[in-house]
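Might I ask for a little of your time on a matter of protein folding? The record follows directly beneath this note:
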Amino acid sequence: MQIRNPNIRFAEYADAEIIRHMMEIAVSRLPSRDWYLDDNIDYISRHTGGPEGYTLIWQDGCRSAAFLLIHHPGLSEENLGRYLSLPDEELPAVSHMESACVLPEYQGRHILSQLLSEAALLEKGRGCRYLMATIHPDNLFSKNSHLRCGFEELMTVRKYGDWMRTIMVKRL
């Protein structure tokens, strides 16, 4: 898999702490705690390349300023493709655009859209046919970034315990 955007790179295992720190900043600045579900360091580390997925980092010179974690759910019960009523044999063609964050001083530059677009190219190259995400219904920043990249709103449901989430899908 080759990245085309010169500001984006694949996260490495050593980046897990930086990604976790960006999540903490994101959570601290949101109007409501239920807008963002942060991941633990183990989950982040498992997404620095490998069968579960990977993470893209947007760099400003040497500074990591944003990230997007991509998860490959396979046949798991959590696969969002089940909301599309996909048969089991199609579920491996679903990728989740999971946690994302853009540091406050970099917001407004469409960096999340750049990360989502790069992920779409990478995932299409590996045979993915559906990109899916969940977003808090009031998080218009994230929702608009996804819409700009061709995602559509599928439905709003309670997920992850009792948190309201809009499920987004992009067909590749």
